[in-house]
Design goal:
Blueprint (H helix, E strand, L loop, with lengths): L1 H13 L4 H6 L1 H19 L3 H6 L5 H13 L6 H24 L2
Helix pairs in contact: 1-3, 1-6, 3-5
């Protein structure tokens, strides 16, 4: 549920913002990055069989992203964060809802 909840939080943090407004809003950027850290850590705890059933998800990248957010934060580009939330998280949310929550 951590993954699902934090994807929803990320959506709330970017609601009503376009990419430029998001990048300019330091509080939103920091909030979204924190959610991505939690999503990353929670992904490490998913069962290997779930990950095997969903090879279309870049599980290693999702798990590894948390290290970048935590330890290489000065090089994290807000534009990349925006593209992650708007481009990558919707498909991850679908997987989580199907695999962990069910119909």
């Amino acid at each position: 549920m951590d993954i699902r909840d934090n994807i929803h939080f990320d959506r709330q943090f970017i609601d009503d913002l376009d990419e430029a407004a998001f990048i300019a809003d330091r509080k939103s950027v920091y909030s979204v990055i924190r959610c991505l850290e939690i999503i990353s850590e929670a992904s490490r705890r998913l069962a290997p069989d779930l990950k095997a059933r969903r090879p279309e998800q870049p599980w290693d990248q999702i798990a590894g992203a948390g290290n970048i957010y935590r330890h290489n934060y000065e090089n994290v580009a807000a534009g990349f964060v925006w593209r992650t939330v708007t481009g990558s998280l919707p498909s991850l949310l679908q997987v989580v809802e199907i695999e962990l929550i069910g119909p």
